[in-house]
Amino acid sequence: MGRTASFERSAVVDAARDVFWRRGYAEAGITELEEATGLTRSSIYNAFGSKRGLFDAVLAAYLDDVVRTRLRPLGGGDPGALEAYVAEMSDAIAADTPRARLGCLLLNAGSSPLASDDAEVRTLVSDYAAEMRAAIRAAVADRRPDLAPDAVDALAAVCASLVVAGLTLARADRDAALATLASIPATLEAWGRGV
């Protein structure tokens, strides 16, 4: 009979998240993951199957705990939900914490060499982008009920692109990231009004 795992899986995933977020999948070494999680290599492999299995658990938890938590209020009928979403991201980036300087873990994964070689990562990032676009589209429809559906689609595509640009810039240029996100409320207001 095998030994029962004596660690909190979510705590291990959170600790590994910081390593992968900071270093990327390819650069994160198993020794670094052992140190961060407090687990031995064999415990990591027994619990997650591989370094890649741990990375997959990190991405899934990030999607559930961070991304979906922020997207959930969008499209719930609150016309100010998109501005609140943008303000929350802007506040996090402006706080200049170590995590804020790392940008979005999923977007980082999607722009890494891993994504070009791995269909699962490409699919995960693509699905994330589609989920974000759908949530932003619903929020735009709540915010601008005066627009026709095709105009809502176009405005939502622009806003989603600005969110992706802001989150991507956060890693390299915090001020540019904040300026990009700050343009979203004005874009929402001016779209289709000839301003």
TrEMBL record:
InterPro entries from the xrefs?
Homeodomain-like_sf, HTH_TetR, Tet_transcr_reg_TetR-rel_C_sf
Keyword match DNA-binding: yes
The alphabetical list of record keywords is: DNA-binding, Transcription, Transcription regulation
Q: Which domain of life is it from?
A: Bacteria
Gene3D superfamilies from the UniProt entry: Tetracycline Repressor, domain 2 (1.10.357.10)
Keyword Ion transport in annotation: no
Q: Where is the HTH tetR-type domain?
A: 6-66
For this protein, the DNA-binding region equals 29-48
Q: What is this protein called?
A: AcrR family transcriptional regulator
